[in-house]
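Batch job 17 of 40 flagged for manual review because the log was empty.
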Amino acid sequence: MAGNVHHRQHMGDAKRRPRALVVNDTQEILELFQDILEAMEIDVVLMSYAPRELDRVRDVGPDLIILDFLMGDREMLGWQLLQKIKMDRQLAAIPVVVCTAAVRTVDELQGYLTEQGVLVILKPFRVDQLEEAVRRALSSVQPAASVDGEGDESKERPATSRADG
């Protein structure tokens, strides 16, 4: 069974707007992200999680992926999807922003997340924190290349926002 995909594109734009794929299992969260990202002039594709989603991710061709580690009754579905994305040659270079309440998981995986150029925002977050992480992710043309310098790694850490939990 495939996850639901809601795709809203704006026709007639002179140049292609960035496209974000948002993966979450809660419709209200998906709609919130859609409102925020569209206000930033980003085309949004919404997807609820289901197994074998890499084909869907490829079909969307996103410039950015936003996902949660915790989905439904299985805590680590988002983490598994992130691993699959980063191990896929076609998808690995796409910037990823993780928005999650899984504080312990983020702490345990911080080295890997930083190495992979994954930006993390802990829930609950402020809209401006999400907007900043999205701008940073979209400005990183080659996220894998940012691992080469100490300064780049230290810049990734502030995107981890710890707002009450």
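Reviewer: the log was empty due to a logging misconfiguration, but the result itself is present. The domain at 5-159 is CATH 3.40.50.2300 (Rossmann fold). Unflagging and moving on to job 18.
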